[in-house]
Fold this protein.
Amino acid sequence: MNQTLSFRHLTPEYVQRFEAYVPSKPDDELKKLFGCSRLFRLNNNENPLGPCPSAAKVIRSFAPSQASIYPNGDCWYLRQKLAEKHGMNPDQFLFGNGANEVIAFVIKAFCQNSDNIITADKTFAVYEWVAEFSGIETRKVPLKDYGFDDDEMIRRIDDHTKILFVCNPNNPTGTYWDCAKLRGFLNRINGRQIVVVDEAYYEFVEKPDFPDAMALIAEYPNLVVFRTFSKMHALAGLRIGYLAGSREAVDIIRRTCVVYSVNTLAQAAAMAVLEDNGEHIQHTRNLVRRQKQVLTEYLTSHRLPFLSGEGNFIMIRLPMSDSLAYRRLMMQGIMIRSMTVFRFPNWIRVTIALPDAMEAFMTGLESILTW
Amino acid sequence: MNAIVSQQWTSLRVAANDMFLPVVMAFVEQSSLALGLGKPEALKMTLASEELFLHLCRVIIPNLGMINIRCTCKGHVVQSDFSFQETRLNMHAFNLTASLKPLESADLDDMRLILASRSVDRLKIRRKRNLLEISLIKEKKYPHALASHKKLDSFTCKDYVILCPTAEELKYFALLTRSFYEENEIPHFFQYPGMLADMIQSGGYHAIIARGPAGEIGGGIVWHLLSDKTVEAIGPFVLEDSCSNRPVLNILAASLIEACISEAGRTSAIAMICCPPESGQYHEYFEYLGHMSRYTANGVPVQRASWFRMMHEDVGAVVWTTKELEDFLRQTYRRLFLPREIRMVGDDGESLHAHSVLSTQMDRLRYQVDLDILWPGADIEDNLLRHLHLFQKEGIRNMVFEIDSGVAWKSAIIPCLLRNGFQPVHILPYAGDGDVILFQLLHPTS
């Protein structure tokens, strides 16, 4: 067939103008492309220690016969476990195929055309993406001192605003709202809109004033909290995350939730994580703390501006294009995240990893800076 | 200033039969007037359409195919697109040099496409999937900005914000820029503030400025999508005396560039091309591509640097070339740290069509033509020479040939370009199916 088909007439305008995200190629393809024999993945904020031993054991013992059976459709055991852990009701939790999926649940549940959501201009991009390709306006509020600007977010609310997304701590800047600030924000919203607090990096934070948003749900029925098993718990490859909220809010969100999207292995491994004694979290925190210190000392000595907040990553401002830095580091087998797409030109984000990877990164950075 | 992207267009579907010429002329004239051209410009567009339609009826589509005509207002220009299916066409006649008479006896007056091009500012011949399209573009007439002999006050404020300008601020910015920069450093539309305002309002172009607390304007930058994958930044223009010839990039210029990159960072653009107004230290944001000479009306070459940056992480690409260009490409990609798989294309004796077709974008305002190959053919060398001869007669001084290295058969003509005086200047990463290699005809005779 010679003719090229066009489905433009069938495609909503907001889908036509949306630019699809192209993920990285598989590691082996990248190594071939950039001519490197190794690859340190410092781009996705993965936990280099892997899952906790009990989850690893569950993964190793997964029986192939289970693959032919549908998973539990709504993660029944996991919801029981979380309810027990947080003193809540199982119906206050909804699971998704990674936290990305639950973002879509919430937006679909509350927004329709002519509505808007509010978030920051330089934060995790998926809130904006889901809204835009669903025909919902995203109001992007500039960061203030690299953090979410609560006053300006509230000022931007109008009658069509349905959801405010706060990434706490913020990816990629690592800034966070403390408990008082989050409470103040929720009080000012006063239940008029849904407030989503994305706590993807919650388990990395050691600051005493960092809020546990889950504990605030009882007081604020319009609060929805996201958590993931992809970062600290190192189950990114299995894709599992969840949201929590009041029964009233979750009852509505459940209507747009595609059940059966979380596979059996992911559910089993996540259950092992929830039953773990917490030692693995402590090991990871220790690693992140130590390696952050090593890296920040290096950056300080080289007079490179950086942002080292909460989370297992650091942002670094380079005196060169971040996309050039990406290519030059890739040629040395080091994959970082270039930040132009986060609207931070010339910044890179580096995941804190094991000492050999951090050493390789610093050596690689040295070589491209002195070139 | 917010873009108003309204659907300002008209369309006509008509059989390729010259009995419909009055219909086509009336349609194009009335559309041009309704879309904002003045009477003289609309008349010229109509004359160009007359030549084009006759050529289509008598030479390109002599067998009564259908032609779609669409007239669109794109802010500062009106564009008339004539498009048709590429089947059943006399492809050879799609060249700008095509004539009603045999080539050996034809003169310029027989070349209706070139006649059409004389009445408009730009003429484009393109292939879009299975459609061929010839576009006539005419700029609206705008009053020239008042000459500013006196240099306006320079900007000294440090407490500025970067934002989208209002229409009045944008026009004042254009005026200020003219008083700070030489004419050859700024695009021609800065000479016409109303044109700049229309370009931004149409949504095709975007601008941001630096504004001080008292409303003073410190600089600005303009950008637009050059293709689906490439955004072109024009500027930054900084209105501070103190910044000139500094070894490091001025802070205000850096703020403008950062804001521009941030805005374009989540568009379809994979690469940003930047042609800054003066030599400076742009290494912090951009990678140096190379220099290109632009010949002015007087034949004086003016060197302009081109810079680029990737907007996304590079995913690699295949580059097709011939052995003559292999060293140039390997050196270029090594210098730019771009991972590319270079593959050779050669003549393996396969059959070719008799006639090739060249695509042209002729910009008479800048004495420039951009060439591309639409259709391979055994007569490519003769065809290229005919085009070069024609351009020289038409006073076109800047001839650039673009080869999309992602398409093997296009790269196969590289030896022909080199034999006829074209030299590789630099590449434009991801500007086509793959990287586009720019060749320039050096020292064209005037």
User: Anything to note?
Assistant: Residues 39-60 of chain B form the longest helix (22 residues). Chain B is about 25% helix and 30% strand.
